[in-house]
Specification:
Blueprint lengths: L2 H15 L69 E2 L11 E2 L12 E6 L4 E7 L4 E7 L5 E7 L4 E5 L8 E4 L2 E6 L3 H6 L4 E7 L5 E8 L5 E3 L5 E5 L6 E5 L6 E3 L7 E6 L4 E6 L6 E6 L8 E4 L4 H4 L1 E6 L5 E5 L4 E5 L6 E5 L5 E6 L10 E5 L4 E5 L4
Parallel strand pairs: 1-15, 2-19
Antiparallel strand pairs: 3-26, 4-5, 5-6, 6-7, 8-9, 9-10, 10-11, 12-13, 13-14, 14-15, 16-17, 17-18, 18-19, 20-21, 21-22, 22-23, 24-25, 25-26
InterPro entries: 6-blade_b-propeller_TolB-like (IPR011042), SGL (IPR013658)
Organism: Rhodococcus tukisamuensis
Keywords: Signal
Amino acid sequence: MILTRVAMVGAVVAGALVGAPLAGAQPVPVPPAPAVPAPVPPAADPAAAQPSSVAPTPTPTPTTEPVPAPVGAPAPAPAATVVPATTTAVPTTTAAPAATTQPAPAPAACVPWTVSTVASGFGMLENLAFDGRGNMLLSEGAPSGGGALRTLTAKGEKGDLVEDVNSPGGIVVDGSRALFTTGNNAMSGLMGATNGTVESVNLDTGERTTLAKGLTMPNGLAQLADGDLLTTTALGDSVGITRIPAGGGESKRLSVDLGSVNGIAATADGKVVVDTSFDATSAVHVLDAADLTAAPQTVKLPGDGRTNIADDLAVGEDGSVYVALNGAGKVVRVDPVSGNQCDIATGITMPSSVRFGAGDGWDPTALYATSFDGKVRKLVPPTR
């Protein structure tokens, strides 16, 4: 069905299977588009959550040590389920061609953000979220396929939320529970394993519940206004978005080809934003949550997509999209309307996810980034 895409990414992932970094290939130059002047970025990007007290900004700490890309072996799916759901694969078809905004080169006025390390010593970090109670939640994985959900306070205190998680991926906080994916490893995607799940943990009691099972490499996770969940798959024959009904029942893969989608976010104004990881060209797609099969608005990112390796993303209140480029080692800000782009942070070791701060001690104007080197970094926007 999409064997050409599997063949395309196979070389990239195969390198990882023998210990080589995913970003080992050299990027293919992309001719720049005509320069488009852009205004100086605002002093601070809007926060994705309500303002809170701001912790002092730590002194920037450069981090350059390389970390190998993770490759997990598939593990058995959890036996106990509460509301199991069966995934039904829908034949993939290609949506009508969308009008694509071509990328503009980074303008001279694009000022980098200040980067500092706020925590280290974790395993390979895949994703993060804030629980609204002063904790950052972190999905921590390992090449062997194990993992856990960890916690971190703004004071640097570490804790454990859920132990023994098989390759955790995206995290979404919904009231008193945290939702997360499992089975997010490359081998599961390439082999078509269906050991992936979406689970929840009660933040008060620690009770763990399975919401959906039978998924293939569920990676990114987002929740729509009606409570339905969306998860992404970036490798194998099941690449795309899967929709999971809020009340349980049959999970369905969307019948639209968006490429090797990875990061995903649902916005308050009814949009769903995704990016692609292993396609030849990195892209950010903006979809209508009311009709996820309609042709998306698309912005292409410069560079070779197979070495960019776009991972998770966040959306600011002004609609700007912030993408963690895992292979390129940077975070880029994209205006999905004009196509203007800015590398707000570079030289980061394999960043995997970004979120605006929320809760006690976390700066709501700053982005916090996880990475495969086990560090959490703070990205502070420039002042005028």
